[in-house]
Each structure stands twice: as C-alpha cells, then as structure tokens.
Amino acid sequence: MSPWKAANPLDLVCSIDTPALVLDLNAFERNMQRMVDALKGHAVRLRAHSKSHKCPEIARRQVALGAVGICCQKVSEAAVFVDAGIADVLVTNQIVGAPKLRHLADLARRARIGVLVDDAQHVEALAEVASAQMVTVDVYVEVDVGGRRCGVMPGPDAAGLARRITDHPLLRFAGLQCYHGPAQHKRSPAERSQEIVLASEAARQTRALIEADGIQVERITGAGTGTFLLERDSGVFNEIQAGSYIFMDRDYCDNERAPQDVQFENSLFIRTAVLSRTQPTRAVLDAGLKASSVDSGMPLVWRRPELSYVKAADDHGILEVPEGASLALGDVLMLVPGHCDPTVNLYDEIVCIRGAQVEAVWPISARGALI
User: Fold this and answer.
1) pLDDT band at residue 333, thresholds of 50, 70 and 90?
2) Average pLDDT of 159-183?
3) What's the CATH number for 54-242?
4) Taking all residues of the chain, what is their mean pLDDT, rounded to a whole number?
5) Cα–Cα distance for residue pair 98/135, rounded to 1 Å
6) How far apart are CA 84 and CA 281, in angstroms?
7) Using CA atoms, how far apart are residues 57 and 61, in angstroms rounded to an integer?
8) β-bridge partners, 23
9) What's the burial of 64, exposed, middle or buried (CB within 10 Å: 0-12/13-18/19+)?
C-alpha cells in the first residue's frame, strides 16, 4: 500500500491534508536570491548547510545559484546528496568508527568529500582508510572559536593537527572549520558582533601560526544564518555555511535585527487544523510533537498574533485563545516552527506551494540519516 500523501502537484492549497510541512516557493526563492546578492562582490563563497532541509532538490537549486556545494552532519546524509549528483560535500563533523570511515572513503571515489578532525586519532584513522582505498579526502581542523562543542583550542594545538594532516599524502589539508553555533542565536546585534569578533581573531591567529610553519590555509569556513554578514566582512572567513536562511523559523525571528541585516522571510510552515474546540479559551490542533520540534520553543501561529501555541503533546497542539476569537472546529492555521532543522526531519516530504496551488512535492530523502 502506498504511503498517505498530504497533497499532490496541481492540488489547491486549500485541499492539503493536515498536518503537513509546506514551503512557500515565492518566499523561499526570494531568500535564496537574497543570500546570493549579499555575497556578490565579496571573496566569500557559500557552502549551504543541508541539515536544514535534507532535500536533494533544494541542494541542487542552491548549487545552481552559485553555492560551491553543501555541508551535512552525517556520512549517511552525504551519501544521499552524492547519489543525487552533488559533487562537493563537507561533513561538518568528526567521524568515528570503521564502518562510517569506509563509507566516507567510498563516497570520495564519486565526489569531493571533506571531513573535520579535532584529534590526532581522527587523522590517523582517516589516513588508514584513505590508504586502504586509495582515495583523497579533504580534512579540516575544527577550531573551537566559542561554541564549546567539538573543536581543538585555537593556536598551537590546531597548528599541530594541520602538520599531522600534511604528513599523509592522501589527506589534503583543506583549512579550518570555525563555526560558532551559539552566536547565531544571541538576541542582540551587539552580542552577536562581539562573539564573531572574538571568533574571527581566534581563526586569524590560528591561520597565522599554521602559515608560519609553511602550510597554506586555503579555507576558513563557518558562519550561519544569524551571523554570516559578520563573517563575510571579517577579512578572515572566505566561506560561509548558512542553512536556515532558506526557511527561517520562530527562533531566528526572535533575534533583534541590525539595520544592515538581510531580511529573510518565513517560507516554511506546518499546516494544521483545529480538531477540538470545547472550551472558549482553548483549541486543540492536530500538530504536536510528531509534527513540530519544540527544542527551541513552541511554534508561532502565522498571522494570528492573538493565538498562542502553549503546549505540545505527541499528536496534539494546545492553543490559548482569547474569548470571542474567531476560531472554529476544522479551521486551518499555519505554524512557523520553533526550529526548522529537526522539524523537517519529522517529515517524508515537503509540499511546495505557489499562490493557491501545489506546484511540487519534494522528498526529504536524507530524513533520518543518523549514521
């Protein structure tokens, strides 16, 4: 039996079943073009992060608009995109375990593959599998520039890892990964700027140490939707890894904007319906935890500021409703997810709309690719 579909191409938007993940193509395309325009005239390239969308069709469109390639977080994600024809994929993560390393090396036969290291053991394991399969792999030293997650500390430790990579003929030292995740969600422009100034200086000093040792640092890559203009203008970064800019979410919309910030639009929504309306100040939706991630907070009810999504159960979303508000059983609402990345991972497909019609349904082929 074929899986249930929320919609098919040429359906009317009003007939999309709920809950469904919906993409407004007009807003999505404007967002993609705004990123292209923001980088035009700068010696900074885009490597779009696919963990936001997990969708080969979106990756192909980003590359067609000038992205050098994509990032992803897992080897199994990389495999989906290589199979779809994406020729340059950076796994922005450390890879541990023989099966994953062999899979990574297999992919390197068909595409340019990059990966991160922050320990000498990563380097030696990559060298071993690259030698066994006679493939070349791009290797980036991840530097902890403030994220306090993965990454070696800036300075001599990072320089030592770069030297170690160059000792192996089938490992290509490709540069430094300097992504500061928490800075993306600092609420004020001043806080974001302060964090990226420090991150850029750490990256600059580390580059200088490595180059003083005679090793070229071709690429300093990082940045995200919340700070990419700061990295663009830093004079240090020459590649950015923004991902959420194509969709946006409620959490990014909570950031205070600086006057120069690019005005990306919400393009990604959860279409949901009211399934219970027994109380005057409460409504229940058919979109709960299985339809929207709440790790970054609750979704926002799109263009209905009087309604508040206050609680998510497995299959139910609870709205607070002011008395007398116009909201009836069966009414359809659009939600802006709190965090787009894990929300997309809940769906098999994304329903793409233009105006009043469904234009396409794109599979989210890397959904659940966790290995």
Assistant:
1) very high
2) 98
3) 3.20.20.10
4) 97
5) 16
6) 48
7) 6
8) 268, 352
9) exposed
- State which fold the 13-21+264-363 domain adopts: Lyase, Ornithine Decarboxylase; Chain A, domain 1 (2.40.37)
* Closest CA relative to residue 145, chosen from 217, 65, 204: 204
Q: How far apart are CA 156 and CA 159, in angstroms?
A: 5
Count how many residues are written for the chain: 371
On the question of a common fold for 13-21+264-363 and 54-242, the answer reads no
Amino acid at 238: N
Helix 120-133 and helix 98-107: axis angle, to 10°?
50
Alpha-carbon distances of 186 from 204, 252, 269, 297, rounded to whole Å:
22, 10, 24, 15
Residue 322 has pLDDT above 50, yes or no: yes
* Cα–Cα distance measured from residue 115 to residue 129, given in angstroms and rounded to the nearest whole number: 13
- 125-150 pLDDT, tens digit per residue, is 999 999 999 999 999 999 999 999 99
Assigned token pair, 50: 């696919």
What ranges do the domains of the chain cover? Answer: 13-21+264-363, 54-242
Residues 172 and 136: beta-carbon distance below 8 Å: yes
206's tokens: 């580390």
Residue 4 pLDDT class (50, 70, 90 cuts): confident
> Tell me, what amino acid is at 275?
L
Q: Which residues of 223-244 are buried (b: 16+ CB within 10 A; e: fewer)?
A: bbbbbbbbbbebebbbbbbbbb
pTM for this prediction: 0.96
